[in-house]
Amino acid sequence: MASVNKVIIVGNLGRDPEIRYMPSGDAIANIAVATSYKSKDRQTGEQKELTEWHRISFFGRLAEIVGQYLKKGSSVYVEGRLQTRKYTDKDGIERYATDIIAENMQMLGGRQGMGGDAGMGGGMDDGGYEPQQRPAPRQAPPAPAARPQPQRPAPNFSDMDDDIPF
Question: Quick one: how many helices (H) and strands (E) in the chain?
């Protein structure tokens, strides 16, 4: 049986990203993104807006980009997967937390506070970032299968007009 663990979040950062570095030098960024849902209360008919907060973790180059370009209030599109972790709180109680591990991120909205195109580099003009993957070694394309060409009679130029205007 196939399974899918995929999350797509579009929302706004509730605080500036928290950036840490592993002993290996790899960056880790954590953000909190708010999404909202509007619903109507069945009893009062009143429109309500519910806000949900999502913890999202970024790793490597993607984490560095998050730390450099995102700030509190930034709109962001994130694709990733859910991961649940178990930890013990300060009172010794075991707890579980479910986070989103980001695999792709796109900055939404304008470029305010980013200094125009400075530092964005080629290929990121739309504000998006997908982790670079090493390209597979290129192989020569397979030669097209040889097809027999239909036999055509040789052209007969004797009936052509010799008064060619060039």
Answer: 1, 7
pTM: 0.63
**Cα dihedral 114, 120, 124, 125 in deg (nearest 10):** 60
Residue 160 confidence (pLDDT): 57
CB 12 within 8 A of CB 34: yes
Q: How far apart (Å, rounded) are the C-alpha atoms in residues 148 and 108?
A: 55
Measured distance CA(30)–CA(53) in Å, rounded = 13
Contact 48, 32 (CB under 8 A): no
Q: How far apart are CA 114 and CA 74, in angstroms?
A: 11
Half-sphere exposure of 97 (CA within 13 A, CB side): 12
Residue 35 near residue 9, CB atoms below 8 Å? yes
The amino acid that residue 124 corresponds to is: M
What band does 116 get if pLDDT is binned at 50, 70 and 90?
Answer: very low
For residue range 6-53, what is the model confidence (pLDDT) as tens digits?
999 999 999 999 999 999 999 999 999 999 999 988 888 899 999 999
